[in-house]
């Protein structure tokens, strides 16, 4: 269950990292494309400004021409009255000459009804002379406002151009006619064609009338409504051109005059610039294609940065988690050690108590045995003493009191031990003691058994052997060791007990060695374990050595066992006490 959850969580993390990487890479690509667009758009705008300036300068140069010609007295005069044919020829020649000098396309003179009375192209088959242009807006503008301007396809020549006109008036300011200059831009378009970019000029209605690529000419940026179509028809501005829509599809607006647009499956960065004086708009279209290498680099860069970030965060998180787990383990461990220590102490105290009770029981049995024998003897001696006294044999009676006294003394010594043992012994009792004395007392306590079991006991004790400790507990250790030795030798024919006490490097080494056959190799390691015993049930509790070792430790020493010669040797090591207080 938990592992499924973990797997799920891992998959979720991996998935979100992957999704994040893809998203970041995508965003970076988009951002980089947008930046590139903006960059290109800035460049286009600069170029567009340049083209715009050129175009306005060109138009500006010719704007003055009709205004100046309108002041020509010759022309004013000619329009004042009907024109004779010689006069017309002279006018035609004059206009032809000026047109050549000014390098304009055509010059024409219209009378007050819009009829062309003279034109620079009078020699050509498209001669304007004799045609009426009153329907053209520039004529209407000139009539009402004194000057006019209009871009249109020539109805006579079929060649498009920009018509600039000025009113010709008499000395009273009366309208006599108009002088019109026509500009054509084929050279400009040719010049534009050199450029990789596409240049267009559209009028106020969105009709493209100038284009570096002829395929774009007379196309519509936006649809025309009925009114506009009617107006175009009446002025014959684009004459018979079909005016098909361009099919412009805006993709992304970059700025007020800048956008990304699609036309016929190709994308263009489209920059526009209004030419307010003419009511036109100049457009610069740059074929747009994002650089795949740059996009890839942007995506790779962003993805690597993102992955670095993600792995950094994961690493930090993992470290934090590890530290937290470690802290928790530490706390748990400390708690566990605490609990175990408490348990151990309780168990040890319980063991000490149990062992003491067991020892007490054994001691009671020993005591009963020890006391019983002298008491029986004493009863018999008392009877014979009474007899001696009755017979008046006082000297013999006194002599008989000797061993009696000796026996009482022995019994006194025994009960003395019992008193010491029964005395309450709180932990941590520290008295200045002679270890040799403690040994002797323990041996004396078992004297009965030693004698009964025919054990040869040798003591070689350094004395005094000062130690600081609890006399009862230390005696308990010795009694344990001695009793174990006696038990071990119960089946031996040779029964030798040897107790030695020597001082060595700040420690007393007390050895209790027997000839009881020693300890089996496999038992050596477990001797000091509580409840380890090889004795039959009811005889051994297996606590003696465990408690003895514990007591040795409490006194800053230790208890060890090994085999030496014919039996086992137990060594109690205790620190030598500094000096008597
Ligand atoms: P108990 O005497 O109740 O068995 P102890 O802890 O005093 O408990 O002793 C544990 C065991 O160590 C004994 O059962 C015995 O096998 C072994 N042992 C102790 N002293 C001797 C010894 N002097 N010689 C051989 N074996 C011994």
From TrEMBL:
SMART domains on file: HATPase_c, HisKA
GO MF, one example: kinase activity
Membrane topology recorded in Swiss-Prot or TrEMBL: Multi-pass membrane protein
The organism's place on the tree of life at top rank: Bacteria
Lineage, uppermost ranks: Bacteria, Pseudomonadati, Pseudomonadota, Gammaproteobacteria, Pseudomonadales
Histidine kinase domain: residues covered: 366-578
Main location: membrane
SUPFAM superfamilies: ATPase domain of HSP90 chaperone/DNA topoisomerase II/histidine kinase, Homodimeric domain of signal transducing histidine kinase, Sensory domain-like
Gene3D superfamilies reported in the protein's UniProt record: 1.10.287.130, 6.10.250.3020, Histidine kinase-like ATPase, C-terminal domain, PAS domain
Catalytic activity reported: ATP + protein L-histidine = ADP + protein N-phospho-L-histidine
Spans traversing the lipid bilayer: 12-29
Protein name as catalogued: histidine kinase
Localisation per UniProt entry: Cell membrane
Stored Pfam families: HATPase_c, HisKA
EC numbers for this chain: 2.7.13.3
InterPro entries membership: HATPase_C_sf, HATPase_dom, His_kinase_dom, HisK_dim/P_dom, HisK_dim/P_sf, Sensor-like_sf, Sig_transdc_His_kin-like_C, Sig_transdc_His_kinase_DctB
Keywords noted in UniProt: ATP-binding, Cell membrane, Kinase, Membrane, Nucleotide-binding, Phosphoprotein, Transferase, Transmembrane, Transmembrane helix, Two-component regulatory system
Broad EC category: transferase
């Amino acid at each position: 269950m938990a592992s499924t959850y973990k797997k799920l969580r891992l998959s979720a993390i991996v998935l979100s990292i992957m999704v994040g990487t893809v998203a970041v890479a995508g965003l970076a690509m988009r951002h980089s494309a947008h930046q590139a667009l903006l960059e290109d758009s800035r460049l286009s705008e600069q170029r567009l400004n340049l083209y715009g300036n050129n175009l306005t300068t060109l138009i500006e140069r010719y704007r003055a021409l009709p205004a100046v010609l309108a002041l020509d007295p010759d022309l004013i005069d000619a329009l004042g009255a009907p024109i004779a044919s010689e006069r017309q020829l002279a006018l035609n020649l004059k206009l032809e000459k000026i047109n050549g000098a000014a390098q304009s396309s055509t010059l024409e003179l219209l009378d007050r009804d819009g009829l062309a009375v003279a034109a620079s192209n009078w020699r050509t088959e498209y001669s304007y002379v004799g045609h009426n242009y009153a329907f053209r807006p520039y004529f209407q503008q000139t009539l009402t406002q004194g000057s006019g301007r209009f871009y249109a396809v020539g109805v006579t020549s079929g060649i498009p151009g920009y018509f600039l006109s000025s009113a010709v008036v008499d000395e009273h300011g009366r309208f006599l006619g108009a002088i019109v200059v026509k500009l054509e831009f084929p050279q400009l378009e040719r010049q534009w064609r050199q450029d990789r970019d596409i240049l267009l000029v559209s009028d106020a209605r969105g009709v493209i009338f100038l284009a570096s690529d002829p395929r774009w000419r007379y196309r519509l940026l936006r649809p025309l409504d009925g009114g506009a179509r009617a107006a175009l028809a009446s002025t014959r501005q684009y004459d018979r051109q079909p005016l098909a829509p361009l099919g412009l599809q805006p993709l992304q607006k970059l700025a007020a005059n800048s956008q990304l647009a699609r036309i016929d499956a190709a994308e263009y960065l489209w920059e526009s610039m209004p030419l307010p004086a003419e009511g036109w708009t100049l457009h610069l279209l740059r074929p747009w294609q994002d650089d795949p290498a740059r996009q890839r680099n942007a995506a790779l860069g962003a993805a690597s940065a993102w992955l670095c970030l993600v792995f950094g965060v994961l690493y930090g998180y993992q470290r934090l988690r590890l530290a937290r787990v470690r802290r928790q383990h530490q706390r748990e461990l400390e708690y566990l050690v605490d609990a175990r220590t408490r348990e151990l102490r309780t168990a040890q105290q319980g063991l000490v108590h149990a062992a003491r009770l067991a020892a007490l029981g054994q001691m009671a049995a020993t005591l009963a045995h020890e006391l019983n024998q002298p008491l029986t003897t004493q009863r018999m001696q008392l009877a014979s003493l009474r007899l001696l006294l009755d017979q008046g044999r006082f000297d013999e009676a006194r002599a008989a009191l000797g061993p009696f006294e000796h026996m009482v003394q022995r019994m006194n010594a025994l009960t003395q031990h019992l008193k010491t043992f029964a005395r309450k012994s709180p932990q941590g009792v520290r008295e200045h003691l002679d270890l040799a004395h403690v040994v002797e007392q323990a041996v004396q306590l078992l004297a009965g058994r030693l004698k009964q079991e025919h054990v040869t006991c040798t003591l070689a004790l350094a004395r005094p052997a000062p130690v600081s400790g609890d006399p009862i507990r230390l005696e308990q250790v010795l009694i344990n060791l001695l009793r174990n030795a006696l038990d071990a030798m119960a089946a031996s024919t040779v029964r030798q007990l040897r107790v030695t006490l020597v001082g060595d490097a700040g420690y007393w080494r007390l050895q209790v060695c027997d000839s009881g056959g020693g300890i089996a190799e496999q038992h050596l390691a477990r001797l000091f374990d509580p409840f380890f015993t090889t004795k039959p049930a009811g005889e051994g509790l297996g606590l003696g050595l465990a408690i003895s070792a514990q007591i040795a430790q409490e006194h800053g020493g230790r208890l060890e066992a090994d085999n030496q010669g014919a039996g086992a040797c137990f060594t109690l090591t205790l620190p030598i006490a500094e000096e008597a207080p």
